[in-house]
Amino acid sequence: MKIKAIVFGSTGMVGEGVLHECLKHKDIESVLVVNRKPCNVTNPKLKEIILSDFGNIESINESLQGYNACYFCMGVSSVGMPMDKYKSISYDLTLNIAKLLVKTNNDMTFCYVSGTGTDTTENGKIKWARIKGKTENDLLKLPFKAAYMFRPGYIQPTKGLTHTYKVYKILVPFYPVFKLLFNKYVCTLEEVGKAMINVTLYKPKIKILECIDIQNKSKI
Questions:
Q1: Number of continuous H segments (helices) and E segments (strands) in the chain
Q2: What was the pLDDT predicted at 80?
Q3: What is the pLDDT of residue 203?
């Protein structure tokens, strides 16, 4: 199987890392990135669409057809953000894009980056976790060939990439300690990317991947 993937969010830390793994992987035939600004990556496998308004995703519908994987890495922090705006970005935007994709790509595997602590009961006290949980639940209801929810905790950045968040740059030297003491809550950006590719290729039964699962699936 050869993968033709769409990556959303490649100008962020996670999306950039996933794109990096895709461009290296022998089973990735082509990659389309959809961004508000250029990702500044050049590769024979890569095509880029600049879309200033993701609320107008239907305008590029034809360009999104013919792909069998989507690695959805877009997201924002809930810190300091009104919950209605956070829901609009984290839930409404995600579901709008996913629903458009599933209409014309019935062979697609959809991978969504959520996070540790996501609340799929949708009844917990933490609002952002409920919103993420509802997003996961509703994505899993869509008729994709397969869908996987990724819940990383601390992510060790990939050396040399440009969109690493400042706080992660500070924490990088402490990764061996985190790995030793909190292994089930940490993974590397390389593992996230490889795990997405592997679940696309091999379709494991597990649908929600915590850090330990991400570590394991990166080694299939």
A1: 8, 9
A2: 81
A3: 97
